[in-house]
Amino acid sequence: MIYLDNAATSYPKAPGVADGVATHIRTVSGNAGRSSYKDSITSSTVLFETRELISTLFGLKSSDNIIFTLNATHALNIVILGSIKREENILISPFEHNSVLRPLSHLVVEKKIKLHRMSFDNNFNIDLETFEKSLIEKQIDKVIMTACSNVTGTILPFKELALISQKHNIPFILDASQYMGYIPIDFTDIPVSAVCFPGHKGLLGPAGTGILYFSDEFKFNSLYYGGTGSNSSSIIQPTFSPDMYESGTANISGIYGLKIALEYLEKEGLDKIRSHRVEMINQLAKELSEIEEIDIQSNLDIKRQIGVFSITSKGISASELTYWFDKNDIAVRMGLHCAPETHKFLHTFDEGGTVRLSPGYFTTPEDIEKTINKLKEEVYVFNR
Ligand SMILES: Cc1ncc(COP(=O)(O)O)c(C=O)c1O
């Protein structure tokens, strides 16, 4: 099989992850932070070292403010729902995933927030002055946005928008789900109040792992209360991080796998990973552009492309095209990709969305070549 669905979850995982998780389940008995026997301390150390690795790799200053979650959706829900204190005006991009849109829509229904959209032109550009003006005019309380579109792969100018928001003391929450692990990033000079991302996509870790990081200044409530192994004499939830946000038994084996994946990323280097990605992007952009029957819905500017391509074809629906890919043993994703507003922006909503091709770090030029050759061979059938 040729796997081109890494934007959903990466496959294969980093070398050593699968064996590491299995070994951890088989050989480490203890729960993290719950006792002082050897295996319990080993589990606590795994959590501690993984937080440290994330902090170092991405310039996330305080490792205690790194919270382990189940996935990016879980992280986004905690930070979005936990941080609404009064009726707020929230500004989002037109490219948000349902993991942002749905908790926010829930708050709209509950009349707790008003939702506003940034305005981007057809080339995915936003006028920074207009953005700044809208913060003031709409009395924005919080900006929440994705680092790049999970449909088109377009990298958005989140750093510039975060800096402008900071100038106005407006908290800035970043969904970096499609960004992390694919391109070097250092949050030291990007003023995010919180950033959420999964461990199972570009970080090449197992499913069931996600990360929420927040700055010291950003305050939000926990959505969960319970045992943390700390301050157990009190029935009141601890108020220090990470314990405040991490009740119950952690996904220790999954986090152990994530640690192996992060060590692999550190050893490979994010620059090398990005170079591989640029190669994949160039090859896909060039070869797909040569197929007349295929319309590329993605931004092809290499500096603004993370490596996610959406295509449509006039002669065939997205679901039929995906069926064709599957018949040829090529795994891609079809539909709206949980981002309905992006498809309204692209005018691909009514046709049921697009087919998305997303290579990963282990995709080879031969995989792309085989995919394109197959398409070229049979594409005429679609337009019969
Ligand atoms: C931009 C974006 N945000 C959030 C998510 C949700 O990630 P998870 O599946 O880890 O909850 C995704 C998943 O595809 C995504 O693409």
List keywords for this structure.
four-stranded antiparallel sheet, seven-stranded mixed sheet, binds pyridoxal-5'-phosphate, globular, Aspartate Aminotransferase, domain 2, Aspartate Aminotransferase, domain 1, 384 residues, alpha/beta, 13 strands, 14% strand
Structural write-up:
The protein is an alpha/beta fold and 384 residues long. The chain has two domains: 17-268, Aspartate Aminotransferase, domain 2 (3-Layer(aba) Sandwich); 270-382, Aspartate Aminotransferase, domain 1. The chain is built from eleven helices and 13 strands. The strands form three sheets. Strands 2-8-7-6-5-3-4 form a seven-stranded mixed beta sheet, sandwiched between helices. Helix 2 runs parallel beside helix 7 and helix 5 (128-137) packs parallel to helix 6. The longest helix is centred in the first third of the chain and has 21 residues, at 38-58. The two termini are 27 Å apart. 45% of the residues are buried. The structure holds pyridoxal-5'-phosphate. Residues 8, 71-73, 97, 99, 146, 150, 175, 177-178, 198, 210 line the site of pyridoxal-5'-phosphate.
CATH topology of the largest domain: Aspartate Aminotransferase, domain 2
Which CATH class of the largest domain?
Alpha Beta
Strand pairing plus helix content: what structural class? Answer: alpha/beta
Radius of gyration over C-alpha positions, nearest whole angstrom: 21 Å
The stretches of 5 or more residues where confidence is low (pLDDT under 50) are none
Number of strands: 13
CATH architecture annotation of the largest domain:
3-Layer(aba) Sandwich
Unique bound compounds: pyridoxal-5'-phosphate
Q: Kindly estimate the percentage of residues that lie in beta strands according to DSSP.
A: 5-15%
Q: How many helices does DSSP assign?
A: 11
| CA-CA gap between termini | 27 Å
Give the % helix: 25-40%
| Count of domains | 2
Q: Order of helices and strands, N to C? A: EHHEHEHEHEHEEEHHEEHEEHEH
Strand order of the largest sheet: 2-8-7-6-5-3-4
Q: Let me know the CATH homologous superfamily of the largest domain.
A: Type I PLP-dependent aspartate aminotransferase-like (Major domain)
Note the overall shape.
globular
- What average pLDDT do the residues reach? 94
Q: What summary fits the major beta sheet?
A: 7 strands, mixed
